[in-house]
From TrEMBL:
It comes from Rousettus aegyptiacus (Egyptian fruit bat). Residues 41-57 have a biased composition (Low complexity). It is found in: Cell junction. This is TBC1 domain family member 2. The keyword Coiled coil applies.
Amino acid sequence: MYNIRGNKQSQGTGHRPPGEDSPLIGEPQREEQSSPPDPSTPGKGPSDSPKPTPKSSLTANLIQKAKRQNNTFPLFAEGLTRNRTPQEKALALEQQVLMLTKELKSQKELVRILHKALEAAQQEKRASSAYLAAAEDKDRLELVRHKVRQIAELGRHVEALEQERESLTQTVSLLEQQVQELEQHVQLLMEKNQAKQQVICVLSEKVTQDFLHPPNQPPKPSDAADRDFLSQQEKMEHLKDDMEAYRTQNHFLNSEIHQVTKIWRRVAEKEKALLMKCAYLQAKNCQVESKYLAGLRRLQEAMGNEASECAELLRQLIQEALQWEASDASADGVELSPIREYDEYGFLTVPNYEVEDLKLLAKIQALEVRSHHLLAHEAVERPLRERWAALGELAPSAELKQLLRAGVSCEHRPRVWRWLVHLRVQHLQTPGRYQELLSRGQACKHPAARQIELDLNRTFPNNKHFTCPTSSFPDKLRRVLLAFSWQNPSIGYCQGLNRLAAIALLVLDEEESAFWCLVAIVETIMPADYYSKTLTASQADQRVLQDLLSEKLPRLMAHVGQHRVDLSFITFNWFLVVFADSLISNILLQVWDAFLYEGTKVLFRYALAIFKYNEEEILRLQDSLEIYQYLRFFTKTICNSRKLRNIAFNDMNPFPMKQLQQLRTVHRERLEAELRELEQLKAEYLETRASQDPVVPEGCTSEDEGEA
């Protein structure tokens, strides 16, 4: 124990006396030898330190104690010789040898550690000496840089070793799994072999017993019954052996199936995790690309129409960004689901604009939509689909209302819409009504047929189902609109109905279902005269919206009023076609999901939410022309459906239906009074024109004279 403590002291002093190892094995100690001089330390030799230091005296004391300890060993051995038997002496000596061997190993390990520490200290000393010996700061700086480079290189080497260690760890885990599977397989084979060995042993014992103790009366060969019994017994034994073998095989196969199932589940979970990670990376990539395009657009706006190399380079970058696709960038053949050209209902995800600025905005918006869709797929859409799948039979309820506000998944939307339409028009539906209206249209041409034909080509030019020459949707839309013109002669046809019917066709995919959906919207959901020639109810709703905007968004209304911007120029079409031309398809259909169940109140909620969503952007615009230009396309920049829905159904509360009905009544009465006044002025003007004789200027002829 003294030797160990002495070594600890040597470790603390930085060097170890060479004669300190000898007390471990009980040999006579040698005198201390002076350490060799360090060649890196100038001016110091072996004769420079004649006086003993406290450090060397402490080492000498430890050596003397070790000598005394070793000198007592013969006395101890003599005592063993006197008092113990030879076996006990040998055992004690073996234990002491083991103890000393163990202590020797620890001492050697300590020597090795001290040697490493000494080498590190000497290396540090040499580096410090080189640093202090440098004459200029440049040399010292170069030394520091060299050390930094060495540290960086060692860091990279450590990272490479860490990666190699991780790969080796994964390889080891896979090999361990394989070893476990092989061990289980071997265990099953051993069990099977053991079962067969048992069967063999039983049969061997039986054969031996029959051989040693033959029966007293062996069966007679002529006895057919005994022969049959023996053959049946032999067959039974064979069947038992087969059954045991099949049982063992079945156990083995069940174990294999269990292992395969575990592997499959593990692979499925890993695949799911990889798909989620891939979707997250895709979303991040879309966000980065969107920010990149937005930065290019801001640079383009800042540079204006300058003709310089930077402007040309910027235009080239924008052109490349618009043409870039993720499939071109995947050199390893892995496709990360780039932005699709069309969505589930045939709408273009990136609209084709002629102006380059709008093209850039469309690409930015498509990337943001893709990013939100990928991030919300696992967190929002999957639980929503599961809730719709578990809903079962549809019935009006608060839960259904909340689900419809959250949106219907694509696979359940046709079924839900048919139920919502039937709920509203079941008192109007009669069997064969749609076919009857089609027959009437074939027998007699409707006055609105020409206008319907003109509007067919204008219906959703950004949807492949209405632009493809071979598509059947235009013919279906024509028949639906003609049937409705015969169904409701007071309206006949109004521009905007083609978009309502087109949305119904895209979702329901059946002419008759789309026809009754159009009937439900025009005749049961919207107020009367909404699509009449005067559009009285539509104009009244615009005034109601102005009042609600003043109440809910006073800053915005004060701003647009200051610049004399009339928002009804933008919002009138929103209500007339239920946002069909304004919002992107996935948000538009979520609006329709709630609209078909709750009615026109949803239109006001979403109109207010759209302005609230973009309020800060509008407030930053300080010119009426800029505001109008922004309002033309700002609805297409909305891509976060959850945020818009939260504003519509939470931030806009309270939103009582009673207040909405009162405002509608007030504005409708005022509007009807204004219309009556206009009609009266028109009648007076016509009477005045009729009472006055037409005056023909001299030298001119009247129309009657010209015709004669």
